[in-house]
Write a structure and sequence with these properties.
The chain is an alpha/beta fold and 571 residues long. The chain is built from 15 helices and 29 strands. It catalyses: hydrolysis of (1->4)-alpha-D-glucosidic linkage in 4-alpha-D-[(1->4)-alpha-D-glucanosyl]n trehalose to yield trehalose and (1->4)-alpha-D-glucan.
């Protein structure tokens, strides 16, 4: 049976394997037809242009063409013993399927899972894998949310990847985009009142206007489908601050309720992680505490504070984080902007986190991520400009903090490959608009237009692929060994993963040049400065568990070389 929601249509047909069939109107604007076949598309009213199914599970020929039926029950899963992984205590690895390997497929990524296991990763976070127009792209221009991008391997490819991850003890988180649709192939508004207003990235969803009940159901069913039918362990919800919803029960809370019910039914933890620039702890506050009940959210403020400390950059949203206490403040309080002035927004921003109540594992800490690299004009990683000692020291801060650590693919070996913005829209007018728009945007910030990579050039994608020969090369090998050590210590020493924010002690130099994290009986001493520093440990130093550089222990202090750190046990 074929069904579709088209409440305003006076006539709907379904074209199945080349033959048109009339559909019957049912309750609530749903149409149906008892037909068998494989490839299908819908025709609305007297328009003879076939449109793909908004709830399509497979698009073998792209987002503008017919959908194809797909049966979840036909896949032979082998993960029956998988009981899932909770987020607390986890370490996340963000990767883009198309550039993680040379082939850019699920099957090729499976061959690299051993690297993630050896590194100590617990959760693999995939950038969006649903269908978008073209072959290559970041995934945030998706338009058919339930169909897996065919060049990656389609729905069976994703299932093979998830199955393989579970066999190796890895949970899988999937990045999903519900705040907007891409610019090519977004036909939802032809079927019903799906759209309401626009975001910075495209058409936004109608979540609270007339006809929005089915639109919300569209989102909820899509989210539950990834978790139930593809055995995914959690979702990263892109830019939830762009979800305009004035209902008494916000879509995020409704989603949290339904995911909790599904988690109970499946007998394994399911995780919801928000990306939000609101600096509002309500998102990750439990529902009985008046919040939405999501499990975690990204913490851009910690990234910004680390970035400024390492690079000295003070453009865009970075100026406020140039104060000497910015890093220490975000480590103690999560949000730097917590009801305080934001010069970037030209207003006060955020709300304080109650560190007595909220645990640190509900906030993701990271040194780099896909946005903060890819949205730079040249897509340059920190490793392109920041010395190895500073990179190592900042990584130690992330992994020894009370927050859930996340790293971006290749960061663990200080990859030299950039990660640039790329797309592959077949429409030449759209392609040119994206190309010129990006160059003009960066030109306004002082970049020479010719220096901004062409996002439509296949060479831009090629440059962004990881070089898997690097982990064995000098310089990269040492950084990888350090990341493995830090992750191993976080697992072996409970103090490092302790999420109790009210127990965290941070000591810092007045000028921010050095910093010490007190983690139980452990001390992480960091020297970000260009000269040696004597750093107080507030305890008798014992064993050095990890270090970059050769620290000297004197009395109750550590003598650190420039741009180095030491993780020390104290008596």
């Amino acid at each position: 049976m074929f069904t579709v929601w088209a409440p305003a249509a006076d006539r709907v047909r379904v074209r199945v394997d080349g033959t048109d069939h009339a559909m019957t109107a049912g309750q609530g604007g749903w149409w149906q037809a008892e037909v068998t076949g494989t490839d299908y598309a819908f025709l609305l009213g007297d328009d003879d242009r076939p449109l793909p199914d908004p709830r399509s599970l497979r698009q073998p020929h792209g987002v503008h063409e017919a959908s194809r039926t797909y049966q979840h029950a036909e896949f032979a899963w082998t993960d029956r013993s998988w009981t899932g992984r909770q987020l607390p205590g986890g370490v996340l690895y963000e990767l883009h399927l198309g550039t993680f390997t040379g082939a850019g497929t699920f099957d090729a990524a499976i061959e690299r899972l051993g690297h993630l296991v050896e590194l100590g990763i617990t959760h693999v976070e995939l950038l969006p894998v649903n269908s978008f127009d073209g072959t290559a792209g970041w995934g945030y221009d998706g338009v058919l949310w339930g169909a897996v991008h065919e060049p990656y391997g389609g729905p069976d490819g994703l299932k093979r990847f998830v199955d393989a991850c579970h066999a190796r003890g890895l949970a899988v988180l999937l990045d999903v985009v519900y705040n907007h649709l891409g610019p090519s192939g977004a036909y939802l508004d032809r079927f019903g009142p799906y759209f309401a207003g626009r975001t910075d990235w495209g058409a936004g969803l109608n979540l609270d206007g007339p006809g929005s009940d089915e639109v919300r159901r569209y989102v909820l069913d899509n989210a539950l489908g990834w978790l139930r039918d593809f055995h995914v362990d959690g979702l990263r919800l892109d830019a939830v601050h762009a979800l305009v919803d004035k209902r008494a029960t916000h879509l995020l809370e409704e989603l949290a309720v339904e995911v909790e019910a599904l988690s109970t039914a499946l007998g394994r933890p399911l995780t919801l992680i928000a990306e939000s620039d609101l600096n509002d702890p309500k998102l990750v506050t439990s529902r009985d505490g008046g919040g939405y009940g999501l499990h975690a959210q990204w913490s851009d403020d910690l990234h910004h504070a680390l970035h400024v400390r390492l690079t000295g950059e003070t453009t865009g949203y970075y100026p406020d984080f140039a104060t000497p206490d910015a890093l220490a403040k975000t480590l103690r309080e999560v949000f730097f902007h917590a009801g305080t002035w934001s010069s970037f927004r030209e207003r006060t921003h955020g709300r304080p986190v109650d560190t007595r109540v909220l645990p640190g594992h509900r906030f993701l800490g990271y040194l780099q991520d896909h946005d903060q690299i890819g949205n730079r004009a040249a897509g340059d990683r920190l490793s392109a400009t920041v010395p190895a000692g500073l990179l190592a020291t900042a990584a130690a801060v992330v992994f020894c903090s009370p927050y859930t650590p996340m790293l971006f693919m290749g960061e663990e070996w200080a990859a030299s490959t950039p990660w640039q913005f790329f797309a592959s829209f077949p429409d030449p007018e759209l392609a040119e608009a994206v190309r010129t728009g990006r160059r003009r945007e960066f030109a306004r910030h002082g970049w020479v237009e010719a220096d901004v990579p062409d996002p439509m050039d296949p060479a831009t994608v090629a440059r962004s692929r990881l070089d898997w020969t690097e982990p064995e090369q000098d310089g990269h090998r040492e950084m990888l060994a350090l990341y493995r050590t830090l992750i191993r210590l976080r697992r072996q020493r409970p103090e490092l993963a302790d999420p109790r924010l009210d127990r965290l002690v941070v000591a810092a130099a007045p000028d921010g040049s050095w910093l010490v994290l007190h983690r139980g009986a452990l001390r992480l001493a960091c020297n970000f400065g260009p000269v040696p520093a004597t750093v107080p440990l507030d305890g008798t130093p014992g064993e050095v568990l990890a270090a970059w550089g050769a620290p000297g222990l004197e009395g109750s202090s550590a003598r650190l070389a420039p741009q180095s750190f030491a993780l020390v046990s104290t008596g």
